[in-house]
Amino acid sequence: MRKVMTIIYMDKDMRLKAPTNSGQENDWKTWCPGAKIGAVIGTPLNPVLI
Question: Is the pTM of this model over 0.85?
Answer without folding.
Answer: no
